[in-house]
Design brief:
Radius of gyration of chain A: 19 Å
Shape of chain A: flat
Distance between the termini of chain A: 56 Å
Strand order of the largest sheet of chain B: 1-3-2
Structural class of chain B: mainly alpha
Oligomer: heterodimer
Distance between the termini of chain B: 42 Å
Shape of chain B: elongated
Largest sheet of chain B: 3 strands, antiparallel
Strand content of chain A: under 5%
Strand order of the largest sheet of chain A: 1-2
Radius of gyration of chain B: 16 Å
Number of strands of chain A: 2
Helix content of chain B: 55-70%
Number of strands of chain B: 3
Number of helices of chain B: 5
Strand content of chain B: 5-15%
Helix content of chain A: over 70%
Chain lengths: 148, 109
């Protein structure tokens, strides 16, 4: 089991979603469930002495410099199917880290948000087009059976 | 079997070229940076969707790496151009040459 999940990596929202999904999804095996639990536990663990999430306690209340905006990552999570979340978010975070090194945190955060905003349209329309296809098929089946 | 005669879109062609140029498996961050260096950057969302579409067309193969320690246990997706993808690129180049056979001469003279 992968216990080396990076603490305070800013994946709290996705960790919550994944953990909740893992409880109900029959597709996941035990390894995936354990991994989701470790992520969720790590992301939501709190420093008792300070009463803040662990990553905030470690950095004096400031978010670590290499953590992308949680809200942006959460929005992307909503727009993406669960199976495709890792592929896009991992790449975005890799680029975010490189931009923090090159241009600083503010510019990198701006870049991350702009990529999120640009991605929302295509991702949502793709999702809707898939649902639209199912709706057309459903309508055709319904029409077939009602006109027989 | 992919239809290699199906026309490639502009971004599809750029992505296939970037992947061929990388010479093996690449993940999206590397592809994005290659496009950026070439001055042809596109939003990550568009790149992601186009890569998925190329996979559905049968021009790409992809695999998911195991969870990585660096970024909260997330997995990377690696893409690689297969034989059909390379054929589609050749077909695209052939079409371009047919449409404008003297392109190189026209530009240099």
């Amino acid at each position: 089991m992968n216990r080396h999940v990076e603490r305070g990596s800013g994946h709290e929202c996705t960790a919550d979603i994944r953990f909740l999904q893992s409880l109900s999804s029959p597709e996941l095996d035990d390894f995936d469930r354990r991994l989701a639990f470790v992520r969720w536990k790590d992301a939501t663990s709190r420093d008792d002495a300070v009463g803040k999430p662990a990553f905030m306690a470690q950095t004096g209340g400031e978010r670590p410099a290499r953590t992308p905006a949680r809200a942006a990552a959460f929005i992307l999570c909503l727009a993406l199917p669960r199976t495709e979340q890792d592929a896009l978010l991992e790449s975005l975070e890799a680029l975010f880290e490189r931009r923090v090194e090159q241009f600083g945190r503010n510019w990198a955060t701006f870049w991350y948000w702009s990529e999120t905003v640009k991605a929302i349209g295509p991702l949502v329309s793709r999702k809707l087009s898939r649902w639209g296809l199912f709706a057309v098929i459903g309508k055709a089946v319904q029409t077939y059976f009602t006109t027989r | 079997m992919a239809d290699t005669r199906a026309p490639l879109g502009e971004l599809e062609e750029k992505l296939l070229l970037a992947l061929v140029g990388a010479g093996g498996e690449s993940h999206m961050a590397d592809i994005y940076e290659r496009l950026e260096k070439a001055g042809r950057t596109s939003p990550m969302g568009s790149i992601f969707i186009t890569l998925e579409r190329l996979g559905e067309k049968g021009f790409l193969e992809s695999r998911i790496e195991g969870p990585r320690v660096e970024r909260g246990g997330r997995s990377r997706k690696l893409y690689r151009v297969n034989a059909e993808g390379q054929m589609a690129l050749k077909e695209s180049e052939r079409t371009r040459r047919m449409l404008f056979p003297n392109m190189v001469w026209g530009l240099t003279s």
